[in-house]
Write a structure and sequence with these properties.
Length: 463
């Protein structure tokens, strides 16, 4: 075997490993918008990916595959990988998939993920394993001691694909352009393996539509997407009455009408009853976890606000496209995970608004635990107030609303309030609404009234 051939085979093994991990991470990122990133969802995707890859390893070792056909098979394999990378990773196509599932009445995130995995995440991973075995056979034909090198270069490609995709490409280049790169690399591998006219033609036939579908122009024109990075897909829609909606990961996160000052109903309730009526005897420290569109306390220029969110572009996008104005000087924005911020800060806050449970599709599992709530509780100043906005059944029709309520009252057993925002109908089949869980950090009295002791006449007038 010539040195040049050996280098090309090793390079293809490296490239196969790079594309496989990068493809898997991008799919996890895109599906996270619709089904979340819970351990269950991740296990389904990774299990399907690894399962079909293992099948590819096994079938690639079949003795029926003649050696002289391996280059052609590899080339076709990389072409198919490029095709499925486009189908499974392109945001517009993934969006169409979920829109149709909801139209057909398939709403379970687990079922949606299983269907997606078997339709679009079976062929690609199978071919990744298949390619690795075929490339290994080519190297072993000339040198049977290449097993370690093969495993090493495949792993190096996977590691590099993982690090570059998550740390550099998706955050700074964009998810859509990362998808284009994955497809282009698979097409490049196909052409290098079999540089024929039909290979080039098929690769161009896949690559050109992929570039168009994932272009900034198409994503902005059809979906209003302004940001598409490792954390979020952000878009803003504006209507004829002046109302603007800020979308993150395909779901509405904030509403604002610059003409009337109207916000989302729960934000208007919070502003009216908990923020704009704060006495001005001294400045209060207010913490908002989950910045959204920065509409909480938007017109309050007296108190000091700290907004914490993991999406670093959120302030710029909100000021330029959503609010249409700059935030006043009393509002600072910190780019950090909410839990990490609470762990590191020593600040106590007079009012904390926890707005990270902003929809019923993507529930941040780390933020609904008793441990996290206890961490939030520790940052509330004496006589301070904590407010959690969640989206769930107002009449406890599902397990999530019931267990969340149990968890909340385990950490906050006293001085609590549960406020349903908007029209409440406990008899409706779908009674999902914004619900505010409120805790007042004040001294508590553990007594209860009984038929034996009922000093209510004294308690009512004692401060």
């Amino acid at each position: 075997m010539s040195r040049k051939l050996r280098i090309w085979l090793i390079f293809l093994i490296f490239l196969n490993g790079y594309v496989s991990l990068s493809f898997e991470l991008v799919v996890l990122r895109q599906l996270g918008f619709w089904v979340g990133s819970s351990a269950v969802i991740t296990s389904i995707i990774m299990g399907t990916f690894l399962g079909f890859m293992s099948l590819g390893y096994f079938l690639g070792s079949s003795g029926r595959i003649a050696h002289h056909r391996i280059r052609t098979i590899l080339s076709i394999s990389f072409i198919v990988i490029a095709l499925f990378a486009c189908l499974a990773s392109s945001f517009p196509l993934v969006t169409e998939y979920f829109v149709h599932l909801y139209r057909w009445g398939i709403t379970s995130s687990v079922v949606q993920t299983f269907i997606f995995s078997f339709l679009l995440l079976s062929i690609g991973p199978f071919l990744f394993g298949f390619n690795t075995t075929l490339l290994s056979r080519c190297l072993h034909r000339y040198n049977t001691n290449y097993t370690g090198n093969i495993m090493a270069w495949d792993t190096i490609g996977s590691v590099l694909g993982s690090l570059l995709t998550t740390l550099i490409l998706m955050p700074f280049v964009g998810v859509n352009h990362t998808v284009i790169l994955i497809i282009a690399l698979a097409a490049f591998a196909a052409i290098v393996t079999r540089p024929k006219w039909w290979t080039i033609l098929l690769c161009v036939a896949i690559l050109v539509p992929s570039i168009w579908i994932n272009s900034n122009y198409v994503q902005h024109k059809n979906f209003g997407i302004l940001v598409n990075n490792a954390n979020s897909t952000i878009s803003v829609s504006q209507f004829s009455d002046g109302m603007r909606i800020l979308y993150m990961n395909g779901l509405p996160m904030s509403l604002y009408n610059p003409r009337t000052g109207q916000n989302a109903e729960y934000i208007d309730y919070l502003n009216k009853h908990f923020i704009y009526n704060i006495p001005r005897d001294h400045r209060r420290n207010i913490l908002v976890l989950g910045a959204g569109g920065f509409t909480a306390g938007l017109n309050d220029t007296y108190n000091d606000y700290t907004f914490v969110d993991i999406e670093y572009t959120l302030r710029d996008i909100s000021e330029k496209y959503f609010l249409g104005r700059s935030l006043p000087g009393n509002k600072r924005f910190i780019v950090q995970d909410a839990s990490q911020y609470l762990k590191n800060t020593k600040e106590k806050y007079d009012l904390i608004l926890l707005d990270v449970y902003s929809n019923s599709f993507q529930i941040p599992e780390g933020f609904i635990t008793a441990e996290f709530m206890a961490r939030v509780k520790s940052r509330v100043a004496p006589d301070g107030i904590l407010i959690m906005n969640i989206v769930s059944s107002q009449s406890f029709r599902d397990k999530y609303s019931q267990v969340f309520d149990n968890t909340f009252h385990t950490v906050f057993p006293q001085n609590t309030q549960r406020q349903v925002i908007g029209f409440a109908n406990p008899y409706a089949d779908n009674d999902v609404a914004n619900i505010l869980y409120i805790w007042y950090n004040r001294e508590s009295d553990d007594r209860i009234y009984t038929i034996n002791k009922t000093p209510v006449v004294y308690d009512r007038y004692v401060k």
